[in-house]
Amino acid sequence: MQAREIIKKMTLEEKAAFCSGQDFWNIRGIQEFQIPPTMVTDGPHGLRKQVNGADHLGLYESVKAICFPAGCALACSFDPQLSQAMGEELGKLAQAEEVSVVLGPAMNIKRSPLCGRNFEYYSEDPLLSSRMAAGTVRGIQSRNVGSSPKHFLANNQEYYRMSSNSVVDEQTLREIYLASFEGMVKEAKPWTVMCSYNRINGTYACENQKFLTDILRKEWGFDGYVMTDWGALDDPVESMEAGLDLGMPGPAPENAARIVEAVRDGRLAETVLDRAVERILGTVLRYLENREAGAGYDYMAGHEAARRIETESAVLLKNEDAVLPLRKEDRVLFIGEYVKRPRYQGGGSSHINPWKISSFWDEAGSWENVSWCQGYTDDPADEKAERYLTEAVELAKRADKVVIFAGLPEVWETEGVDRRKLDMPENQNALIAAVAAVKPDTVVVLHNGSAVAMPWIDSVKAVLELYLAGEAGGLAAADLLYGRANPSGRLAETFPLRLEDTPTYPYYGVEKEDVLYREGRLVGYRYYNTKKKDVLFPFGYGLSYTTFAYGHLKLDRAEMTDADTLTVTVDVTNTGAVEGKEVVQLYVENASCHEVRPLRELREFDKVCLKPGETKTVRFELGKRAFAEWNPRTQDWYVPEGVYKIQIGANAAEILLEQPVGVRNAVPPRPDFTVNTPIGEILAHPVGKAVLEQAMGEAMRMFAGVASSNQEEPGIMSDAMATATMTSMPLRALLSFSPEVKLSQLEQLVGAVNQAIMGN
Ligand code: BGC
């Protein structure tokens, strides 16, 4: 039976109740129509299906599932096909566990490296975030299970996450925070979207008609249901009106009663309730009709997929004197707890009960020429700390090479709490420095969910960033360290030198009511590049065991309009001795780089695999959006005319090749001159200049004369100053300076200018 027919037979009370969960994890079943309760479950890098006891903080145990690399790692693959492959595994797992929706991907922008959930999120860049998320969504949904990309919108801190108000200007929202969701929604068509806890510019995300309906549905074509984050619902009636469909968790009898009451007393149209029920029910039926009853899951294959995904994602940050890859004959001392018990996931609602944890030592512990020692402890009460350090330094002296597995302890990175600093634990930093002092051939392997400071970077030879690598991360580490695989990850976020350098310093994590996004669009590398700040490692950075060279950057035209498509081709060659993958990154340097427009933005990327000596030509197409910014005045995308640079970068800070392209508007922007428009803007337009000078030349000359003669001390107001003052003066101010001028005359004049421009 179709959703609509069922809805016709449901009572008002049944429909209202259907818009809250049946319990913590299930959408209400409708017995009369043989619709069972259907389960939704976290996400995003595994399945947290709880059967005994439920919570949204990861406290009660969940069934065993594959714990894949967290979003922070996956995004560094720069490979949407890979996130699709992970999504497919999640979809298969969900089918086997009878789960209708996976609550993920988590895809908020990394506004600050301190956000406690950055380990779940993908990037500081909306294009990368949106493409990686689209891959995950496509993968999950290819198995007829829904996904719920979250948390929509501007939920970029954990501090007071349930009540804070993100105050963000429209341009920043459109170009950064909405953009992260936009491409994913349009491209991958998620079955559901989860709205966030916070308010945005004063209105709770779940009550925000502009985002839930006007943009998400009407502009982007979203046709699934919107559910709340757990406990985010404020006013069930206002939310439903705004475009929210499902409040989670449930049951929430009072919310249902309030909806019933609102329909009865005419405050809420019953059709709005029916609409919400239809959206939820339609999605439930879609899942039920495609359920793979009795589907099993191949956990060993899942574990292998987790290993492969991490192998493609880890980032080689430093490798001097080719200290890596290690050779089997090297006598290597491995140091640290994480060698044997890896830190592989974050805390909170994404916490997976792993099927099997494979440590590096499980793989390599029995090999020849390897040894291990503790080195440090995360337990501050451990009295042997001093001894671990001394022992490590002594053993290091006798090894050919040392590899230290370090990172952030789990309690430092968890949902609900933001980090306070960039630093790793002091004892780990001290250990790395002490060991590197006696053994220059020291390698650091990092386990962390977000950027860290590296005070010891100059004294170690190599750094391999694993991030939170999932349950098979230890195997991937062995593959990469010993050269069975070639690192190909690139940083999806900037590693700053110091916390004080970050765009949101010093106000991030301090504001709990109104959280002002003062940095605007200058998020991540957009900030560091524009402000010319040095960083530890830039966005897009990563090394390989081979080398690549670029050439023949070609644009198919030197001039274009914003209605055209620019085709860009570039050759990339593997100039080293082993096969490797390169992430080709295309940035556009903006033409009109005034104070707040980012200097350069990632507009395309592709990952290519090259054999030694092989060259491939990579092709990109750029349309209007690659050059556009949001114009809040016209409520539309707009390309400032000028010369843009098409750049191929090794990363966001290192441009290897560039070519200019002139971009004009195919259709000149609609004039919207009013009597409040600054005179300079009207004069800047040829038609405006002609009309204005003819009609108001005298008045303007009078003003300029008045301004420059009206000085008590000669020299204070120069002619240049008078002109500048007039340039920024609204047209209507002429009324105050020239008694002959009439308001009606000015109104007629701007009308004539607007019309003349349109007529041209
Ligand atoms: C988190 C969501 C999660 C939900 C259910 C909330 O606390 O913010 O990401 O899906 O709990 O566990």
Task: State the shape.
Answer: globular
Indicate the proportion of strand residues.
15-25%
Radius of gyration: 29 Å
Content-based structural category: alpha/beta
Helix % is 25-40%
Question: Count of DSSP helices?
Answer: 22
- Which strand order does the major sheet show? 11-17-16-15-12-14
Give the bound compounds. Answer: beta-D-glucopyranose
Largest sheet: 6 strands, mixed
- Distance between the ends: 58 Å
Query: Which regions contain 5 or more consecutive residues with pLDDT less than 50?
Result: none
Number of strands: 28
Average pLDDT confidence is 94
Overview of this structure, please?
This protein is α/β, with parallel strands linked by helices. Helix content is 32%, strand content 19%. It is built from 22 helices and 28 strands. It has a 6-stranded mixed sheet with strand order 11-17-16-15-12-14. Strands 20-28-27-22-23 form a 5-stranded mixed sheet. It has a 4-stranded mixed sheet with strand order 1-2-4-5, sandwiched between helices. A hairpin with a 4-residue loop joins strand 25 and strand 26. Helix 4 packs antiparallel against helix 11, helix 5 packs parallel to helix 6 and helix 11 packs across helix 16. It is globular. The model has no long low-confidence stretch (mean pLDDT 94). It binds beta-D-glucopyranose (BGC). Beta-D-glucopyranose binds next to loops.
